[in-house]
Amino acid sequence: MRRRLASTESANVPLWKRGAALGVDFVVVGLISAFLSMSAAVQASLFIVGWLFMRVVVVSKNRGQSLGRWAFNMQVVDGRRSKTPELMALTKREGLIALEAALAFLGVMNFGPTAAWALLLFIPLGLDCGVAYANPNLGQAFHDQIAGTYVVQSRLGYSLDIKLKKIVAYAQRRVKR
To answer: How many CB atoms lie within 10 A of CB 152?
Structure first.
């Protein structure tokens, strides 16, 4: 049975915004883990720990928002209660995606002209998030379905997407002159 979202929420957060928020979190955690270690195993371990900290601990204390979700005005909510998910649900959700994102991180770190195989490490993350494309009305990726969570619009945040659109529109107007 599908739950009914409150009137101020929408389950249909555009998938590009979810991807952009994931990208912000990915870059922040990836940069930190890359600067703090040398070997691939240590980098992947630090990435997973950093990811779980940013996307479980920070999210549980920050109304369902990680840094990336805050930048794009989104939050994670429990499918049954319309509130921030409990730690166990967040850990289930983010534990799966942490492993997939760590593989993608290793793919980025090892990619080169002689190591095109590293692109294969993006497949698990792509399949997980691709589930949301299969059913755009529901908008749940595989990790959301396992944890029973939704990503919804929020009034709290930085509105980075809107600010970038304004900057691009301003730049286009300046170029036309």
So the answer is: 21
Sign of the torsion angle spanned by Cα atoms 12, 89, 22, 82: positive
Distance CA 165, CA 104 (A): 28
Per-residue pLDDT of 41-96, as tens digits, reads 999 999 999 999 999 999 999 999 999 999 999 999 998 888 999 999 999 999 99
Structure tokens at 169: 């529109």
Which among 126, 128, 154, 161 has a CA at the least distance from the CA of 10? Answer: 154
E strands in the chain: 74-78, 149-153
pTM of the model: 0.86
Enumerate residues 6+ apart whose C-beta is below 8 A from 73. 153, 154, 155, 156, 157, 158, 159, 161
Surface-to-core class of residue 63, CB atoms within 10 Å of its CB (0-12 exposed, 13-18 middle, 19+ buried): middle
Spatial distance between the Cα atoms of 8 and 130, rounded to a whole number of angstroms: 26
